[in-house]
Each structure stands twice: as C-alpha cells, then as structure tokens.
Amino acid sequence: MLKHLLRGSAIGIFIATSAFASTYFFSGNPSESYANEPLTLDEAVLLLEEADMVILNQNEYNELVRAIDNLKEELYAKEVVLETVETELDETQEDTAEQETETDVEEEPQQETVIKAVLVIEGGMSTRDISNQLINLNIIEDRTAFENYVNESGLERSLRFGEYELASDMTIQEIARIISSP
C-alpha cells in the first residue's frame, strides 16, 4: 500500500510540474515581448531624461568640443605665462640675493646676449626636428615646452616650409606664430 501511495504522489507531482512548465513556456512572457520591440524616439528620449541624461544634436556636440579645445588653449597659454612670470620672479629674487651679498666692489651688469639665426623648415620635418634645430641654433632652451605648446595649440599641422629669422629673446609663442600659417 505504501508503494501505491508513493507512486500516486510522484505521478501527481509530475503532472503538476508538467502543467506549470507548459503554461510558463507556451503562454509567452509579457516582459520578453516588450523587450523585443524597438523603442520609439519619444520613448528613448523619455528613458534618457528619466536617467538625468542630456541629449545633444551633432552641432551642439561639435560646439561643446570646440569650446573645450578653446579653453584648453587658453589654459595652456596662461600656464606658459605663469611659468614665465615665476621664472622671472625667481631670477629677480636671485638677483636681489646676489646684490645683497655683493661687497663694495661694483661689477658691471651682464647683458644677455641675443642670438639671431635663420631657421630653415623643409618638407617632411616634424615638430621634434624643428625643436631640435631651434635648440642647436640656441634660439630656445626647452625643447619640450616648444613641442607641447605647438601640439596643444594645434599648430603642428599649420607649420610652413621656409626660412625664418628668429632671435633668442623671442618667446615660444612668438616663434610658433611666425613659423605657422596665418
């Protein structure tokens, strides 16, 4: 009798499980059918706005990218000016310290020698080649500062071939402006 009771229970569980499985698999899941349908433009906009996202068209995006680039250029120019001012301040402080430690003997102030040279830019020269030539001509002292300014200002594509008269008392910005197209 226990054998028949156990078989009956097993058959009942099997039938109930089969009924649930067929209902689940063959009736369709409403969430799946909704997920397979493409979103309309209005639905997509609504979903993005609910997620606190902003939608831009291509023109608005391009304007933002240009504004960011302009701000980067302004920031770099201000950093260069700040470095120049800091260098001049350091030099002034060093000069002041030297003047305080001088004895009664007055020395003639040394004038910085301005070196003038002709820079020749030929086809196929990279920004590094130009900066190396400027270093060799003693026009600039910091190759990296020149390369960074040219690259971050977007001038690397507008450098022109030719011969340019440059002097060592020119700033990196002046040199870059002279050798790049207007």
CATH C-level class of the domain at 116-179 is Alpha Beta
- DSSP E strands, number: 2
**Number of helices in the DSSP assignment:** 7
- Beta-strand residue percentage: 5-15%
Topology:
Layout: H1 2-27, H2 30-36, H3 41-50, H4 58-101, E1 116-121, H5 127-136, H6 143-152, E2 162-167, H7 172-179
Structure in words:
With 182 residues, this protein is mainly alpha-helical. Among the domains are: 40-94; 116-179, Endolytic murein transglycosylase (Dna Ligase, domain 1, 2-Layer Sandwich). 63% of the residues lie in helices and 7% in strands. The protein contains seven helices and two strands; from the N terminus they run ααααβααβα. Strands 1-2 form a two-stranded antiparallel ribbon. α5 packs antiparallel against α6 (143-152). The longest helix has 44 residues, at 58-101. The N and C termini lie far apart (104 Å). The mean pLDDT is 84.
Provide keyphrases for this structure.
single chain; 182 residues; mainly alpha; Dna Ligase, domain 1; 7% strand; elongated
What is shown here, in short?
With 182 residues, the chain is mainly alpha-helical. Among the domains are: 40-94; 116-179, Dna Ligase, domain 1.
